[in-house]
């Protein structure tokens, strides 16, 4: 399409806008009460025989998506959030002036219709237009109705056009909303209390990640967008709330990939008097329930219990390297050889690299990888088995080749936690930018006494990816971060 054609199309639509105003028609009215979803009309007349009319009247509203016919009768398609409904416009019902105005509308215009339900002779449920109103004049043409919106970058940058053009996209984000509701419902029914903790934090923590930094002018100091909700939620457990969760946005200043978006949605929950084994069972039951509620029919089997394997055995099975037998950085680097870059990588980073490259991509069916080295887990409690020296009670759940959830038996010994913070400071001084800063306020909370606690964080975006069969996190985020 030439540069002149879009300009001409925009000018033609603006001319129609001015004609409407000249005719005394408000092209942007304030409201249109009494609208029902097009799906409601379909549901109530699913058994209506072909060729029959009803006396049932409805008010629907949506975007004009197609138009056929120009004479005494025309058919139009109206699309709303719930689906599509055919409209029948008759000149003898509307009159000459109203019929011409209706037929002069552009695809993409938003209209409201009062009409009577009928079934066409060809078997399509239809609403005969008894009256209509223009609700918003579209000044730009919609995406091509036959091919939809195919350009991936445009779909992500202008998601509203993707939603207009692609029914699958609308269905995906309605599915996402149902998944979020199902997760909340499961936790509410289990007696958890939903809370809200700060997004802007004076000290970030709860994960190993680089933060986004912003300036808090009123306080004249830097703040951080949270990388996790963990530390605040555990302070609430100290305060006696005992079973809490938060579902919201976290931010990590890291790279983009099919599995990573710097702004993402997490649910974290913490449960007093429980451990990581209890959280594994809760996770399995929750994900299985959510999958059933949203009608998942894919190849993944979420039926509890999921497969379990230790991190040591998982890496050993896929690489032949026993990371717990090689606790020095140099010994592990020598064993890795040229399989991974080892320069400027400390011991916990090398372990994580082995897990990410050689184990994670192979974990397709839901799998729980348990018992992590303490260096990777500054908030997890030491393993209760004395033979598991240097190991903590932590698991990560994987599915479809990516991490889905992360859980601990939470560390509640303030002296042990202080030593872990000090170790993180040493890693930071050695150049690791993804360390946990020393948090004296959190230590003070632990010194008041935190009960034995199990905690878990699950990525909502990744759960939606798994249950919708999508391979990129940007597919399931309405407005993902994009480069210029």
How would you describe this structure to a colleague?
The chain is an alpha+beta fold. The chain has two domains: 4-142, Nucleic acid-binding proteins (OB fold (Dihydrolipoamide Acetyltransferase, E2P), Beta Barrel), CATH 2.40.50; 167-306 and 365-476, 2-Layer Sandwich (BirA Bifunctional Protein, domain 2), CATH 3.30.930.10. It contains 16 helices and 16 strands. The strands form three sheets. Strands 6-10-11-16-15-14-13-12 form an eight-stranded mixed sheet, with helices on both faces. Strands 1-2-3-5-4 form a five-stranded mixed β-barrel. A hairpin with a 2-residue loop joins β14 and β15 (402-409). The two termini are 24 Å apart.
How does the SSE layout of this entry go?
Layout: H1 4-22, H2 38-44, E1 53-68, E2 73-80, E3 83-90, H3 91-94, H4 96-103, E4 110-119, E5 125-136, H5 152-157, H6 159-165, H7 167-189, E6 193-194, E7 200-201, E8 212-216, E9 221-225, H8 230-238, E10 243-251, E11 263-272, H9 276-293, E12 307-310, H10 311-319, H11 329-336, H12 347-359, E13 367-373, E14 391-399, E15 402-409, H13 414-429, H14 440-447, E16 453-459, H15 460-468, H16 473-476
Parallel strand pairs: 3-5, 6-10, 12-13
Antiparallel strand pairs: 1-2, 1-4, 2-3, 4-5, 7-9, 8-9, 10-11, 11-16, 13-14, 14-15, 15-16
Overall pLDDT score: 94
Q: Would you count the extended β strands for me? A: 16
Enumerate how many helices there are, as a single number: 16
Looking across the biggest beta sheet, what order are the strands in?
A: 6-10-11-16-15-14-13-12
CATH architecture label name of the largest domain = 2-Layer Sandwich
Instruction: Please give the largest β-sheet.
Output: 8 strands, mixed
């Amino acid at each position: 399409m030439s540069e002149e054609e879009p300009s001409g199309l925009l000018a033609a639509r603006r001319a129609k806008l001015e004609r409407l105003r000249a005719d005394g028609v408000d092209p942007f009215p304030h409201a249109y009460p009494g609208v029902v979803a097009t799906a409601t009309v379909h549901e109530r007349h699913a058994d209506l025989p072909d060729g029959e009319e009803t006396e049932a009247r409805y008010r629907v509203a949506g975007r004009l998506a197609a138009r056929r016919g120009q004479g005494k009768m025309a058919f139009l398609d109206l699309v709303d959030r719930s689906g599509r409904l055919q409209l029948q416009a008759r000149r003898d019902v509307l009159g000459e002036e109203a019929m011409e105005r209706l037929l002069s509308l552009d695809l993409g215009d938003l209209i409201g219709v009062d009409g009577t339900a009928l079934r066409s002779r060809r078997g399509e449920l239809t609403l005969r237009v008894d009256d209509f109103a223009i609700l918003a004049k579209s000044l730009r043409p919609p995406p091509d109705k036959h091919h939809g919106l195919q350009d991936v970058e445009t779909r992500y940058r202008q998601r509203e056009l993707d939603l207009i053009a692609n029914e699958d996209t609308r269905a995906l984000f309605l599915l996402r909303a149902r998944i979020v509701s199902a997760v909340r419902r499961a936790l509410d029914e289990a007696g958890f209390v939903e809370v809200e903790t700060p997004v802007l934090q004076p000290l970030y923590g709860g994960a190993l990640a680089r933060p986004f930094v912003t300036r808090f002018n009123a306080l004249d100091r830097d703040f951080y967008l949270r990388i996790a909700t963990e530390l605040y939620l555990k302070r609430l457990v100290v305060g006696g709330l005992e079973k809490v969760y938060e579902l919201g946005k976290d931010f990590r200043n890291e790279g983009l990939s099919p599995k990573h978006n710097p702004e993402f949605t997490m649910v974290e929950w913490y449960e007093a008097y429980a451990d990581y084994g209890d959280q594994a069972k809760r996770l399995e039951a929750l994900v299985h329930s959510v999958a059933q509620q949203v009608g998942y029919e894919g190849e993944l089997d979420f039926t509890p219990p999921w497969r379990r394997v230790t991190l040591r055995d998982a890496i050993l099975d896929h690489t032949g390297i026993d990371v717990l037998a090689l606790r020095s950085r140099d010994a592990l680097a020598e064993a890795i050889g040229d399989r991974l870059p080892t320069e400027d990588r400390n011991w916990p980073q090398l372990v994580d690299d082995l897990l990410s490259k050689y184990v994670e991509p192979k974990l397709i069916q839901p799998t729980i990888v348990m018992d992590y080295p303490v260096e990777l887990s500054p908030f997890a409690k030491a393993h209760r088995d004395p033979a598991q020296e240097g190991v903590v009670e932590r698991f990560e759940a994987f599915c479809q080749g990516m991490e889905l959830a992360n859980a601990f038996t939470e560390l509640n010994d303030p002296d042990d936690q202080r030593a872990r913070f000090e170790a993180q400071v040493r890693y930071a001084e050695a150049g690791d930018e993804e360390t946990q800063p020393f948090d004296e306020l959190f230590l003070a909370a632990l010194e008041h006494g935190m009960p034995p606690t199990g905690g878990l964080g699950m990525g909502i975006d990744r759960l939606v990816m798994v249950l919708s069969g999508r391979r990129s996190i940007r597919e399931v985020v309405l407005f993902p971060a994009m480069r210029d």
